[in-house]
Amino acid sequence: QVRGVVKNENNEGLAGVSVVVKGSSTGTVTNNDGKYEIKASNGSTLVFSFLGYKNQEVKVGNQSEINLSLEVDENLMNEIVVVGYGTQKKTSLTGAVSSISSKELSVQPVISATQAMQGRVAGVSVVNSSSPGNEPTVRIRGVGSISLNPNPLYVIDGIPGGGLNTIDPADIESIEVLKDASAAAIYGSRAANGVVLITTKKGKSGKLSVTLDNYVGTQSVWKTLDLLNSAEYIKYGTALLTASGQAVPGRFTNLNTPIYEGATTTFAQTETDWQDVMFKNSPIYNSQLAISGGSDKSKFYLSLGNFKQEGILPYTEYARRSIRLNSDHNVAKFLTIGQTMMVSNDNRIGEGTAGGRSLVMNIMRMIPYWPVSDPTKLGGYSTTAQGLDATDPENPMRIVVQEQKDRINRSYKVLGSVFAEVKFTNWLKYKFTMGGDYASSIFSSFVPIYNDGNRSRPTAEVSQNRGQYFSSVFTNQLSFDKTFGKHLVSATAVAEKQDAQFKSITINGQRPDNNIKEVQGASNISGNTSLTENTLISYVGRLNYEYDSKYLLSATVRRDGSSKFAPERKWGTFPSVSVGWRLSEESFMKDLQAVSELKLRASVGSTGYNSIGDYDWQPLISANNTNYSFGNASQLASYFNSLGNTGLSWEETTMKNVGLDLSLFNNKITVSTEVYSRKTEGLLLRVPIPESLGYSNSPLANVGSMQNNGFELALGYRLDKKDLKSTFTGTFDLVRNKVLSLATANATINAGSNADFGGFDITRTEVGQPIQSFYGWQVAGIFQNEGEISAANGADGDAKTPYQNAGTKPGDIKFRDLNGDNKIDANDRTYLGSYLPKFSYGLNYAGTYKNFDFAVFFQGVYGNKVYNGTKVIGQGMLRLFNATTDVLNAWTPTNTNTDVPRAVSGDPNQNSRTSDRFLDNGSYLRLKNLTVGYTLPSNKLAKVTNNVLTKARLYVTSQNLLTFTNYSGYDPEIGSTGGNLLNGVDYGAYPQARTMTVGLNLGFN
Amino acid sequence: CDNSDLNKINPNGVTFDTYFTNDAELVAGVNSAYALLQGFGLGAREWFFLHDLRGDEMATGGGQLETPRNQLLIGVNDPGNSVARDVFTGWFRVIHRANVVIESSNKTTASFSANIKNRVAGEAKFLRAMAYFELGTLWGGVPLYTEYVKSVEGSKGRATQQEVYKQVIDDLKAAESALPDTYPASEAGRATKAAAQVLLARTYLQQGDYASAKTELEKVVNSGRYKIVDNYLDLTNEEGEFNAESIFEFVFSPSNGAFNWSGPDGDGNSAQEETIRTQEYSPIGWRNLIPSNKILANYEKTSKGDAKNDPRFDMSFWKAGDKFNNGKDVMDDNAVQGNSSTVDGKTMKISWRKYSLLYKSNAGFATSGINMRVMRYADVLLMLAECENELGNSAKAISLMNQVRARASVAMPAYPTANYPCDSKAKVFEALQHERYVELAAEQVRNLDLIRWRKNKKQTAEPISYFTANKHELLPLPQTEIDNNPKIEQKDQNPGY
Questions:
Q1: Long-range contacts of range B387-390, CB-CB < 8 Å, 24 or more positions apart?
Q2: Chain B contact for A455 (CB, 8 A cutoff)
Q3: Which CATH class for the B17-256+473-492 domain?
Q4: In B, which residues are within 8 Å of A458 by CB distance?
Q5: What is the pLDDT of residues B260-308, one digit of tens each?
Q6: DSSP strand pairing (A748-751 vs A763-766)
């Protein structure tokens, strides 16, 4: 008789470990405390095995007690990977699937799993932008849509849904990214832009585990720009206005007046650094309590989370509270039931804009001799007087207090599922899953009465928009899994139905005072409600076949019926097939000891994308949707605003993928690489219609095609040296995007025109070019004298027609005449570059030395361009506002060696037109995360805390500690503000913060 | 699963087949075409800008004038100009909505009462005609749609300007007979018979057809319904809306400062019925455009040898020392941003007072509910005077002009005067040009006047400084129209662009 305890790496009893006498049928499993008893004779060998741990064999001698700890199996190839509607051994995988573990996810102080994914997976691009809580832009394998937002499908514990911010990243066990069609096609009409599977934590049988993880930190802006101070501003402003023949503002010569009536300071004594005023150090805080455990019958995981992040600009914040309970129960030998459930609430205050201008833009433009606040003004903030100051910037502090502070997004989400699995035999199972996703959002807005001396709001505006989303999924799944000799066959069949419903109500009104922030006692109240619904009915089949662990074949098909399309267009079929060959299992490879795994994979398949409105094919009358006053009393009006399209269908993507997985030296080195071609047809475009048709909305039609071809590489290296254990991982990916066709052969889709940024379109999408390429003029140089201008004007034989502009003067930019007609016009624009990186990469080091642990994570992109709107604001000199110090280097007859054109208000030469002058290299390398942790020795800890604490780890983390970039704006990470075709255009984006946190992980007995 | 769940009908609206089937729906339909007149692309902002920037009444207020506007002002606008495009788009949306109404009024399945059906169709035709009049005059030949377009392939190429004007005339003749002489006060703002007649006259005038224009204008005069009101200020303030001089107005109404920035339609059913005109031009405001020195110098004054200072000068412009905000505040040049003007050799800040809300407000930012009087009786009399003069009845022309000058609050001495002797057809025309310039200043008729006088070769000198022949007669078609309309190619662009 032998007895003992089997423990895990944390020195906790491990339940369910199989203990077998080698070569016999005698066996048992450990109980909840990890204890076992077995009959074993002297000289026999016990084999301990548990999924995810290395097997251990112990020879039985005289001892009656054998205690041991099982080691975690780092052998990546034995990993189990979550795939659509099931799991698969990584070795059997034939598609392109990448996994991220909970370890990688929880190391960073970020809101969501999507943020944590950045740089971790080759082929997944994550771009953060905007204020806390704004979901980052996630693209898998390039950009797959033009008019639609090409987001991946998120599936959370089997339930397709969204709102990843609401899920505490610490609750996530793993994320799987299904990249190629063979992996994703099982999600059919929603999968064309990739699928992200999120699996939340489950309880493990064994001793109750109680952990408390806390961190607290501070965030700050890591870079500011050199803006003009008062004296410089006055010098610049004088030059700017004088050059255009305007009077110098009266204030410039009259600064010795009080900043407001009754103030003791004067404008001359005021020097406001608006960046200093607005950017602040702000706190970030997270706390998570998790309790998990259970028996071999029932297991549970319960967690409470509390997260709050304030932005680095005032009154921007995100806060989340969440509760999760997941449990599994083995009701009978043949029946397992389980559930997941999350309840969360989050609040977000986003960046406020006035007239569409960002806070950064207002900060840059505000005048340095102006005071932050002014108690004599209604609302407490003032801005320049147009007459005296000849300019009208918005006071950014007024914006955050009066246009932002009381505009709050609150959302409540309940996401859960229940399943029951019936095991008919060892090889046939039936699983029924029922899932629900309820999300309620409330946006309440109150903007007060104010008068800043220039702008004012005579009545307060209150509004509330509420949305209620409910989606239910019912899945019936039959799984077959059987080995016939060397043949392994598994098959899955699914029938599924998902219904989604969205109800909204909006109400707004005006109030005569600032006392009440609700729609109470309001005048001019108006309200709307709406209801949209959709249904998706699906049939799914998958067949996996494996011969001798060498030859792998997988085929899937999904047939989707969607209510979003017209009759005759509702159904689509999305097949895929993939094969794999594990060369390392071949006898001729067995001699190569170095190679522990070598697999070749290939796949082809088709997926769809249907993320359009629920009724886009049906044209409607906009009934009573506008009004006109007759006799000054409003009458309702109805109109017919958009054409429908009964031919509307999904975007369809065909993807081919070839992959190779290689492990060397007992999995010390791992290499995984993929090459793919992805072609999307039937792109849904809002076909740009002629203005003369008179419709306000362009109809959607499946008219375009686009391709994304790419290469991905993931490398891993493990080095264990006694006390120092290290893991290096790296990801590298490159994607090339090209538009193959649009609505018509010569069609162009332009975007980005904005009067504050020169007034010309900034990107163009055209056949043969990458999507939304930057498009504009090229700078040839600066006209140094009248002679050069008249020479250019006369080059076409007619000196009266200007080369560029009638107002061109020395010091203005000379643009390049690309078509050789000796004049500059729209035809001299060209493609200037793309926001898409030439490649992107991530480098990660994780190590432990004795009780210390380290993580160093670099992330970067290379070869992309950013249209630097902050440069247009800073040195575009369109109108008189504050500017960057670049304008002090503006061309003058005595300062000719410069690339900043002359200062002249109104920009008569259109020096600020879209050109390569404002196009910056957007490459960056960022030390995304640096962590150092120390875990107190557990035996000492137990002693000191009287056995209360089992674990205590203290760590410090910095996010975005270092950024290497040539980008001259605030931050090179520029997402899109204003549509799919404006990625990489920096209209004054909210910069990413540098974060410093300290954290404490505690485990309780 | 039950596949019938896949058949879902949008519950948030009604489909075309089931709508526009009764009187109320048909009226709502034509209301939506009116609503565009008030939208951002037309009356609320871009339409008055486009006309004003193309005439010679305006100068830049300073660097605050946005680029696309400044380009129009100095004549370097290209086909991408957003102001011109929004107006182009706005008028075509009027046409589309009018077409929907006109076609729906012929539905046999519907239950319309005959008088509503005829009147609404008449209103729609009037609005369609107004749109095509503007489009044809500013852009020349444009695509001509007399039915609403049923599919994206349904676009048309350019018609000729003659064809466009012909359609305008056909529509207006139909409207003239269908429209009532007046409406009850609660319906004020709808197109009347006289509005159709005035627009018809304007169309004839653009084509130099003075006889036909005269016929239409005389109908308006002979109706006896309209007269010159006493107070000149009542023509551009809120209190004088729908007065006896007014024939057609773009209606705005005060909605607590709510302005619909979403152009060019300005749709939506919240109360955003204001125009930003006051903010754009007022001295306490953006002051994007100010009066040109030329128009300031055109007013009669004793210093030039005229018998009297024209009171319309003070009633059209704000200047330092003027009382505003119901007399509570005094205008001060220090509070006024931007450029100065030169009047009688003196440099001072002068700003537009017409349609400015400052007369009863001192708000730093304001939008207003002041209606735009796009057709008024003084214009009718002056157009008739022009017809009479062209047709050889100079005496009649002079007496018509003098009716306008005799307005109680203006009371300018009758023509002939020392500076306007009116002793020949040409001299009468000179007086007429002057009278129209000052009487109708900043009322969006100057641009139309210059276009037709230029076209009909009535001018002795080109008043626009940047004017290039074979280019600036017309605006360029918006590039978006050329790019997206398969029936229009680059070579179809107007000359010079």
A1: B387/B205, B387/B210, B387/B211, B387/B213, B387/B214, B387/B217, B388/B214, B389/B425, B389/B428, B389/B429, B389/B432, B390/B210, B390/B425
A2: yes
A3: mainly alpha
A4: 256-257, 363
A5: 887 777 777 667 789 999 999 999 888 999 999 999 999 999 999 999 9
A6: antiparallel
Q: Report whether B386 contacts B205 (CB < 8 A).
A: yes
Domain A76-207 matching CATH 2.170.130.10: the answer reads: yes
**Domain boundary assignment for chain A:** 2-69, 76-207
State the Cα torsion B252-B258-B261-B265 to the nearest 10°: -40
Tell me whether the omega of the peptide bond preceding residue B264 falls within 30 degrees of 0, making it cis.
Answer: yes
Place of tokens 């802006």: A221
Which residue is closest to B19 within chain A, CA to CA?
A621
Residue A769 tokens read as 């070019």
Pairing of strands A35-38, A27-29: unpaired
Q: How far apart are CA A719 and CA A445, in angstroms?
A: 55
Cis bond upstream, residue B416 (ω within 30): yes
Best residue of B337, B361, B465 to probe chain A, by most A CBs closer than 10 Å: B337
Residue whose C-alpha is closest to residue A220's, from A263, A278, A169, A285: A278
CB-nearest partner of A620 from B10, B265, B365: B10
- Map residue B117 onto helix, strand or coil: helix
CB A811 within 8 A of CB A902: yes
CATH superfamily of A2-69: Carboxypeptidase-like, regulatory domain (2.60.40.1120)
Tell how strand A949-965 and strand A779-782 pair up.
unpaired
Sign of CA dihedral B363, B364, B368, B374: positive
Q: Which of B35, B85, B258 sits opposite A637 (nearest CB)?
A: B35
A250 contacts chain B (CB < 8 A):
yes
pLDDT in tens, A289-342: 999 988 878 999 999 999 999 999 999 999 999 999 999 999 988 999 999 999
The CA distance from B29 to the nearest CA of chain A, in Å, is 5
Cα–Cα dist B32/B26, whole Å: 10
Contact A8, A40 (CB under 8 A): no
Contacts of A245 (CB under 8 A, 6+ apart): none
Contact A76, A663 (CB under 8 A): yes
| Residue-by-residue DSSP string for A886-905 | GGGG--BTTB-S-SS----T
Nearest residue in chain A measured CA to CA from B185: A631
The conformation of residue A687, written as its DSSP 8-state character, comes to P
Instruction: Report the C-alpha gap between A903 and A890 in whole angstroms.
Output: 6
Enumerate residues 6+ apart whose C-beta is below 8 A from B25: A623, A638, B19
Which of A95-109, A443-457, A487-501 is the least confident region? A95-109
For chain B, where do the domains classified as CATH 1.25.40.390 start and end?
17-256+473-492
Buried b (16+ CB within 10 A) or exposed e, A398-409: bbbbbbbbbbbb
Q: How far is CA A679 from the centre of its chain?
A: 23
Find residue A174's DSSP bridge partners: A101, A199
Using one digit for the tens of pLDDT, what is the confidence trace for A805-860?
878 999 999 999 999 888 888 889 999 999 999 999 999 999 999 889 999 999 99
| Yes or no, beta carbons of A690 and B485 under 8 Å apart | yes
Q: Which of A888, A963, A886 is nearest to A923 (CA)?
A: A963
Q: How far is A425 from chain B (nearest CA, A)?
A: 27
Q: Which is nearest to A93 in space by CA: A677, A492, A711, A661?
A: A661
> Tell me, what amino acid is at B291?
P
Closest CB to B92: pick one of A453, A629, A692.
Answer: A692
Backbone angles phi, psi at B16, to 5 degrees: -55, -40
